[in-house]
Specification:
This protein is α+β, with helices and mostly antiparallel strands and about 200 residues long. The chain has a single domain, classed as Alpha-Beta Complex (Phosphatidylethanolamine-binding Protein), CATH 3.90.280. The strands form two sheets. A five-stranded antiparallel sheet has the order 6-4-3-7-8. Strand 3 and strand 4 form a beta hairpin. The longest helix is centred in the last third of the chain and has 10 residues. About 40% of the residues are buried. The mean pLDDT is about 95.
């Protein structure tokens, strides 16, 4: 896939770089659908481009998915789909952290840790929020939350894969919204230093 982030998408990403061209929204969205009618996505736990709290990552016990809320989607929306991906992970595709569908086509929210109506397989083939765990020496990774308003409801069974979902969403998008959280882990040397203090 090209490394060029679409010009209509780049301003909506906090710190776009070539890997972002692999995101689902780069394939499924367009200048016409991004933010259509004021459609937007936000979280009470972080602002666009800000760091995720460790309570949403692999670095704390009992971690859960962050809370999300969205404005009214474009008229005619039948269903909402959420895709969360890490475009900084190694590989040909971004690392898929969450596939959610079956969300009502209206203004709404997912509470912190709430179980969504339908969940597909993440990059580890589990049907759940995949806790961010970037390599310790990496710069902060982006976790891009992408919400799609669909003209027709999906016919997918729970446990579908990213590619299965994207195929059904393609050509079915009335509007889309995006926000990014970032996360970096302490270096392993820092962990060792903390252990020495115990």
């Amino acid at each position: 896939m090209t490394d060029n982030v679409p010009g209509w998408l780049a301003p909506a990403l906090a710190n776009h770089r070539p890997g972002h061209a692999r995101l689902a929204i780069a394939r499924l969205g367009s200048e016409k659908t991004l933010g259509r009618g004021g459609f937007s996505l936000r979280s009470a736990a972080f602002r666009n481009g800000e760091e995720l709290d460790p309570s949403f990552t692999a670095d704390e016990e009992d971690s859960v998915a962050p809370p999300l809320e969205w404005s009214a989607p474009p008229p005619g929306t039948q269903e909402l789909v959420l895709v969360v991906e890490d475009p900084d992970a190694a590989g040909d595709e971004p690392m898929c952290h969450w596939l959610v569908w079956g969300l009502a086509g209206q203004k709404g929210q997912l509470l912190e840790g709430e179980v969504p109506p339908r969940v597909g397989k993440n990059a580890q083939r589990n049907s759940e929020w995949l806790l961010p765990a970037p390599p310790h020496e990496d710069d902060p990774h982006d976790y891009v939350f992408q919400l799609f308003a669909l003209e027709l409801p999906l016919t997918l069974m729970p446990g579908a894969t990213r590619e299965e979902l994207l195929r059904q969403v393609e050509g079915n998008v009335l509007g889309c919204a995006v926000m990014t959280g970032t996360y970096a882990r302490e270096s392993e040397e820092d962990w060792d230093d903390e252990d020495d203090l115990d």
